[in-house]
Amino acid sequence: MFIDRYVNTDGPGDQRLSAFTRTYITGTPTDADASTLADLRWSDRDAFTLYLRSSEYSWAMITITDDDAAVLGLSLADPDNSPLARQKAEQLIYQLRREFAAPAGIAGVEMPPPGSRKEWQEDQVQLRVGTLDESPTTLEPPRC
Which residues contact 29 (CB under 8 A, 6 or more apart)? Predict the structure, then answer.
């Protein structure tokens, strides 16, 4: 599971992770969880992102898109704009795709997570692996 593997669960940096876990993973949300998660929503949209401390990377991100899809992300520190960071990003995309049976992965510099299928296709993406199915999806709650 993404959270167990990549998030510093002892100090996640955002206490709303508990509300997210109850709502999207265990299916046991409290009455307060909906309003807690609503605070994360992007202005007038359904999409939201949790930015969490990672045990191995700069940040771990979990986005629920406007389409109710889960986008899982990891941030790599690259202050020197090193070509090795791009290699590491590409390897990480392949690793995450295998680990979570993801159809596609993207990477970019200072790029926010996509909040919709349309944003997934935007030009600021510098590395793209795989493709998304064009058909509408019906997703079960993401197993992050």
Answer: 19, 22, 23
Look at the pTM and tell me if it is higher than 0.85.
no
Residue 137 lies in a domain: no
Write out the DSSP string of 72-92: EEEE---TT--HHHHHHHHHH
Query: Could you give the CA distance from residue 65 to residue 27 in angstroms, rounded to a whole number?
Result: 18
- Asked whether residue 142 is domain-assigned, the answer is no
Q: In terms of residue numbers, what domain contains 53? A: 2-130
Q: Residues 29-78: pLDDT tens digits?
A: 999 999 999 999 988 889 999 999 998 999 999 999 998 888 999 999 88
In a domain, residue 138? The reply is no
Q: Does the residue 143 lie in any domain?
A: no
99 token code pair = 């680990």
